[in-house]
Write a structure and sequence with these properties.
Shape of chain B: globular
Order of helices and strands of chain A: EEEEEEEEEEE
Distance between the termini of chain A: 34 Å
Number of helices of chain B: 0
Largest interface: A-B, 23 and 23 residues
Oligomer: heterodimer
Number of helices of chain A: 0
Number of strands of chain B: 12
Structural class of chain A: mainly beta
Number of strands of chain A: 11
Largest sheet of chain B: 6 strands, mixed
Order of helices and strands of chain B: EEEEEEEEEEEE
Strand content of chain B: over 45%
Chain lengths: 112, 113
């Protein structure tokens, strides 16, 4: 299995609070991605990174920011959590865009 | 822009029967196509991929898919399913020059004993 971990695995937070999710890889892959998974929507890309300090937006980036200060870590921050951000968040990595993406175990976030 | 349509949100199939999960894509340039599987309470893992070459692609667990450029389809098939195939299946597309992968909405495969 690809070495990808996500933390925390579960989190319950209140509306308006900031939340940071962490993705850590041991594969030294260049590309890292954050997706959210919601029933009826499949996986939707939030942000991705193509190198240290190089990031770009996905299709559902509003309300989210990311940072990548080291190859192995990709952080997703919800500046002020809303109930619409209740979801399961997956991190993924790949060597190149056309290669297989390896997924982490997911983080279940509930915003009350 | 690229997009993926999975035509069936749920597919019930009897054990040992064949199954086909349908996927259609849209893109104005060359595509790379993927099928991922998600077992309950787990992340996604790759079943198979088409990058170029032979249009019939074989994957893990006895699955295969055929790339049909004229019909812009990449349907997933298995000749005989097992209880362990119960999962959600996602088709995904990436295009030449595009760093992003676009996923379909998923097909939940339920195996009936």
């Amino acid at each position: 299995d690809a070495g990808i971990t996500q933390s925390p695995r579960h989190k319950v937070t209140e509306t308006g609070t900031p939340v940071t999710l962490r993705c850590h890889q041991t594969e030294n892959h260049r590309y890292m991605y954050w997706y959210r998974q919601d029933p009826g929507h499949g996986l939707r890309l939030i942000h991705y990174s193509y190198g240290v300090k190089d990031t770009d937006k996905g299709e559902v980036s509003d309300g989210y920011s990311v940072s990548r200060s080291k190859t192995e870590d990709f952080l997703l921050t919800l500046e002020s959590a809303t109930s619409s951000q209740t979801s399961v968040y997956f991190c993924a990595i790949s060597e190149v865009p056309t290669a297989e993406q390896y997924f982490g175990p997911g983080t279940r976030l509930t915003v009350t | 822009a690229q997009s993926v349509t999975q035509l069936d949100s749920q597919v019930p199939v009897f054990e040992e029967a064949p199954v086909e999960l349908r996927c259609n894509y849209s893109s104005s340039v060359s595509v790379y196509l993927f099928w991922y599987v998600q077992y309950p309470n787990q992340g996604l893992q790759l079943l198979l991929k088409y990058l170029s070459g032979s249009t019939l692609v074989k994957g893990i667990n006895g699955f295969e898919a055929e790339f049909n450029k004229s019909q812009t389809s990449f349907h997933l098939r298995k000749p005989s399913v097992h209880i362990s195939d119960t999962a959600e299946y996602f088709c995904a597309v990436s295009s030449f020059g595009n760093e992003k992968l676009t996923f379909g909405t998923g097909t939940r495969l339920t195996i009936i004993p």
